[in-house]
Amino acid sequence: MRLITNALLLAVVGISALGAEDLLLEKAKSYGLEPIPNDIDTLMSIINDKNDPISYPKIELGKKLYFDPRLSKSGLISCNTCHNLALGGADGVSAAIGHKWTINPHHLNSPTVFNSVFNQAQFWDGRSPHLADQAQGPIQADAEMAAPQKLVVDRVTSIPQYVEDFKKAYGANVKITFEKIASVIGVFERTLITPSPYDDFLNGNENALNSKEKAGLDLFMEKGCTACHNGIALGGTMQPFQVASQYKFASLGDFSGDENGMVKTPTLRNIAETAPYFHNGGIWELEEAIQEMGSIQLGIDISDKEAKSIAVFLGSLTGKKSQIIYPVLPPSTKNTPKPSAD
Ligand code: HEC
Ligand code: HEC
Fold first, then answer.
1. CA–CA dist 137, 134 (Å, integer)
2. Are strands 97-98 and 102-103 parallel, antiparallel or unpaired?
3. What are the tens digits of pLDDT across the range 126-174?
4. pLDDT tens digits for range 89-105
5. Distance, CA 156 to ligand 1 centroid (Å)?
6. Pocket of ligand 2 contains residue 108 by CB under 6 Å
7. Domain at 51-190, CATH from 1.10.760.10, 3.30.420.40, 2.60.40.420, 3.40.800.20
8. Please, what CATH class does the domain formed by 2-40+195-315 belong to?
């Protein structure tokens, strides 16, 4: 199919009219790679959610809640603890550590929140369809923030500035529910997107990637990585795992995918910033992760040199983070339920 597409393209456009860059660009598109759109209307049509449309007051409120550790039972853990926006949107440890220093019971690694809006499913087993729903999980999970819904609503509604912020975001009659708190955090997350040199290239600037990055991109496609790492996220869909052989750290933790053994393909955006890799954080070096992918997913050996080349390409997926001003959070009141270390 791909061969046909390329052949057709050459026939229609004429090879002499195309430079090598144009060919690589067309090839990337024919392999299903897509840029973050550089025009705001197209971008908004992808990241917006009609159930809770993006607005500035919501982004600001969602940002405060994202950074507010009072959404956790202990008063110490925020979303940013494990999805640190200064650390590529992840935490840099193999398995997440939450309430009372609990290690994730399945030894799961925290995925990055950057560009998670482009995922078609959230969580390693894809059990959540979108960000507004997803955010309800970690707040309540015993091994993460361990806060019952009522505690979270009581904390937020005891703080007059938050009540004001909700009115500004949703109108004077807003009812502050647990679902609304999660949803507005989701609105903030939908803005966490990071355009990169790779996007500039796919959007038509042929000088945005250097020759080594271009060679790595070509190899990435030739090896078959784009079978699963495609679309805007270069991932984000459910795919079979251990297609050709067993993952060498399969026994670390007990995760085995969804009920069909499928695993959410992680985005490769900002991958150079989010070691360790794989669902259980078993691999620390990017080149080793690339070689492991070759053997377990494609049944091929990727040489050290090839892995290096692909890693150079993956480096071009490190994107520009929007500047996030650390929010000053509104003070608790005498009615705010106290933190608890139990
Ligand atoms: C204790 C660490 C921890 C905290 C705190 C935490 N998370 Fe997570 N997050 C994780 C782990 C681990 C996963 C993967 C869990 C799974 O797949 O079952 C995850 C998954 C996610 C995902 C899915 C991303 C993807 O690519 O599948 C998003 C989005 C996310 N968290 C956002 C949040 C938000 C928003 C908060 C705050 C309300 C939060 N997280 C709090 C550790 C944490
Ligand atoms: C058949 C689908 C498929 C193919 C082909 C594939 N991958 Fe993956 N990739 C996945 C899945 C699924 C995961 C998550 C596996 C896990 O952690 O359980 C993953 C994980 C990764 C990771 C770790 C990401 C992270 O954040 O932990 C990297 C890096 C990666 N792949 C690169 C590649 C490269 C490079 C190729 C080509 C040599 C490739 N993949 C081919 C599906 C695929």
1. 6
2. antiparallel
3. 999 999 999 999 999 999 999 999 999 999 999 999 999 999 999 999 9
4. 999 999 999 999 999 99
5. 21
6. no
7. 1.10.760.10
8. mainly alpha
